[in-house]
């Protein structure tokens, strides 16, 4: 089961956008790939949540975003292969190989996939910033996270990293907003 942010009731992500059209994209943010071809535990949680969500919205595209720099740890390819192995048709799974950061992913989704209304799947600690960044690119963005999240090692490290990323995005936020305003109107 997945929960949506910022809906404080914890409801599942909406089936339609504010204008009544169907949500067109489910974007999964990448995470570590430790062994060739296998998603890490945190990434598997995100993927299982996205696949369950896609099964309720089979017309939506699944966009797998992450770092594709290394062949042995190509996040989008591993994510795509995992989704296909779980029964998602190949034609529904797309890759964003230049998703080096949350901001770059959302910029790529707006620019390369012409998305306007999406659900972004990540972990709970990350959803508020991901939704904020999506909206800064003029995307109608909803965030979903795995629930219940399994305890994962390294929580303190992720909290510090997220704090620093929020500070960076806050200070750069005006630049994101201005760039997206000029680019996407």
Automatic annotation (TrEMBL):
Reading the lineage from the top rank, the first entry is Bacteria
Entry GO terms, CC: plasma membrane
Ranges annotated as spanning the membrane: none
Residue intervals of the DUF218 domain: 26-149
- Mind telling me which InterPro entries this protein's record contains? Cell_Envelope_Assoc (IPR051599), DUF218 (IPR003848)
Q: What is this protein called?
A: DUF218 domain-containing protein
Q: Which organism is it from?
A: Boudabousia tangfeifanii
Q: What is the lineage of its organism?
A: Bacteria, Bacillati, Actinomycetota, Actinomycetes, Actinomycetales
């Amino acid at each position: 089961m997945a929960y949506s942010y910022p809906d404080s009731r914890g409801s599942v992500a909406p089936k339609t956008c504010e204008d009544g059209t169907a949500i067109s994209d489910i974007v999964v943010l990448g995470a570590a790939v430790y062994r060739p071809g296998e998603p890490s535990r945190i990434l598997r949680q995100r993927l299982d949540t996205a696949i369950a969500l896609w099964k309720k919205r089979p017309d939506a595209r699944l966009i797998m975003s992450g770092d594709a720099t290394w062949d042995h740890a190509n996040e989008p390819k591993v994510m795509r292969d995992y989704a296909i192995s779980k029964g998602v048709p190949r034609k529904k799974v797309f890759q964003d190989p230049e998703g080096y950061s949350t901001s770059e992913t959302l910029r790529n989704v707006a620019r390369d996939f012409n998305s306007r209304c999406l659900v972004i799947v990540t972990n709970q600690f990350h959803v508020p910033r991901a939704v904020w960044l999506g909206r800064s690119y003029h995307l109608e963005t909803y965030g979903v996270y795995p629930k219940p999240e399994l305890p994962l090692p390294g929580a303190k490290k992720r909290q510090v990293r997220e704090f620093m990323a929020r500070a960076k995005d806050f200070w750069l936020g005006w630049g994101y907003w201005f760039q997206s305003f000029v680019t996407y109107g």
